[in-house]
Specification:
This protein is of the alpha+beta class. Helix content is 20%, strand content 39%. Strand 2 (23-27) and strand 3 form a beta hairpin.
Length: 127
């Protein structure tokens, strides 16, 4: 049983994550536009949060359009909410509450820009 959980964690973390603090704009059903920040980023997904105390109108499985801002440019892609960190959970004791998204659609130009952003963070270049 522990082996099964471990294998799931490894599969979910197939891409290296980097810590990055960037603005993200998301748009979902109902054309509601919300602004978040990133906690971390990989080529497969991001973790989004806001310090504003309120309930997120976001549920696991929700599809969103995302704009990740990098200086004066942005990367646009489609994401699906993979998990939500609720207030009072063990993870929320160490990190802000928010939600993780998995990138499901991203054109090659956006994917290349995302890779460049990750490489700059890994090289220690500050935003």
């Amino acid at each position: 049983m522990v082996y099964g959980r471990f294998m799931t964690e490894v599969r979910e973390r197939a891409a290296e994550r980097v810590q990055v603090d960037a603005f993200v704009k998301v748009q979902g059903a109902g054309d509601h536009e919300l602004v978040f920040r990133t906690r971390d980023l990989s080529e497969q997904g991001l973790f989004l949060y806001t310090r504003v105390a309120r309930a997120y109108p976001i549920k696991v499985g929700t599809t969103l359009q995302l704009e990740l801002y990098d200086f004066d440019q942005h990367v646009t892609c489609t994401v699906v909410v993979a998990r939500v960190v609720e207030p009072g959970s063990a993870e929320s004791e160490r990190f802000p509450t928010g939600f993780g998204v998995r990138i499901t659609e991203c054109d090659e130009v956006a994917r290349t820009a995302l890779r460049r952003m990750i490489e700059r963070v890994k090289a220690g270049q500050v935003y």
